[in-house]
Structure formats: structure tokens, C-alpha cells
Amino acid sequence: MIIDTNIRRAQSLDDRRNLVFPGDFDETIDYCVNHFIDLCKKSISKKKYFSVALSGGSTPKSIFKMLCSDQFKGEIEWDKILFFWGDERAVPPEDPESNYKMAMESGIKNMPIKKENIFRMNAEHDLEQGSKEYEELINKKLHSKLFDLVMLGVGDDGHTASLFPNTEALKETEKLVVANYVPSKRTSRMTLTFSAINKSKNIVLYVLGDNKKDILKKVLFPEPGSESYPCQMIGSSQNKALWIIDKAASINLKKLP
């Protein structure tokens, strides 16, 4: 298979995934921002709000910063966005490791957003109870529609959100939010489940940087008998996930058998 990494329109890989290659890092971040804005405008035009589950990580941080920049912030009706999170570490909101803190400090806290439209995961105390309450909150605010956009990344071990390899959350088929113990991190986290993610309207995985090139090849084009990765379970034939991949991450994908 030959992968064209020069395209800016999505191409289908299989029944779970579409791929798009906008270019280098800056071009890809620009594409991500414009894609976010386009989804936001379409959702608000149709139903008067846009619900998004934010992600942690360096790429989302770059996206948030650009969305909040003078260039783009006027493109968004900030008071009509409902901000949720896809996962959270078991830390208070002021902790440097908090996904909530990262997103807010990237510029979101300075935007004209209604406080009642920001729904952080309360993961610093009882994770089991917090997960139950967050699922109840999602159902109350969004009902069965779930999210208009779920933003995700891909870890070097193939995890996404806090769905890590060989963890109990991978087996969950009914709940939307769970506490998940991660042995490799020696800690528990709160995370959306495959069920919550795959039932949402738009699912995007952002894969940028040279450090992602090896795991990306393993995930998208696994060798026979190789181990499986949580991010491979994102998307479905009814609702494909969009993988936005930059030039550095895609270097191993150009020519494959």
C-alpha cells in the first residue's frame, strides 16, 4: 500500500479510520484549528451549542493556544460551547499535571465562556464516585447525543484518553466514564470509555511529531500476530474516527506492503 502523505482531504484506511495529512507541524495545527472551528459552527447553526471533550497533551495545547489567539478567537461563539474532558489524572485542578489546568492555561480561561458551560472531571478524590457523577452529568446535559467532538491523542504505548493497554477500562461496554487503574503509571485516572467515544458524532485523533512515527505504523499497519493497542478500537463502520497526522509522524507510512 502506498500512502499519499501530501493530501489535505481525508482518505479511508479501513472500516474504523479515515486519515488526513495536512503537512508539517504548523500546517497540521492550522488544519486542526480550522477543522475544530468548522465543526463548531455547523453544530451551533444546527442545534445552538457545540459539545466537545478536550484532551491533554502537547498537540491539544497548541490547538487551544491558536484557537484563543487574536487570529481565530473571533471565529467562535464561545458562550455556546460546552467544555468537557476526555480523561483526567487524579490530581486537583491547580496541579501542573491536570488536563483541566493545561486547557484553561492555554487560553480558554480568558475567552468569554459561561462558567456553567465548563465541566471538569473531579478526579482528585473518590474516582469511582466521581466517574459515576460525571456520567450522570453527561447524560443530563447531552442526553443520548453525547459529544459533537471528542479530541484524542495517541501515546507511545498506543493508549488514548486514559485507556491504557491491559487495563480494566478496555473491557467496559456500558458505562460512559470509569476509573481506570494504570499499572505502568502506578495510579488511577478517570476516562471516557470506548462506548462514550465511539457513539459521539466526531472523533479525532491528533498524531504529530517524530516521536509518534513508530507507534503510528504499528497501530495502523499491524504485523500478523502483533499486540493490539487501545487506540485501534476508536471509531466504527458507522462512525469513523479521523486521524490527523503530520509529516514527521507519517514518515514510516509512505510505502508499505
Explained architecture:
With 257 residues, this protein is an alpha/beta fold. It has one domain: Rossmann fold (3-Layer(aba) Sandwich), CATH 3.40.50. Helix content is 27%, strand content 19%. The protein has six helices and ten strands; from the N terminus they run ββαβαββααβββαβαβ. The chain has a seven-stranded mixed sheet with strand order 1-2-10-9-6-3-4. Strands 5-8-7 form a three-stranded antiparallel sheet. Helix 1 crosses helix 2.
Distance between the termini: 5 Å
pLDDT average, as an integer?
Answer: 94
Kindly identify the CATH topology: Rossmann fold
User: How many separate helices?
Assistant: 6
Summarize the structure.
With about 260 residues, this protein is of the alpha/beta class. The protein is built from six helices and ten strands.
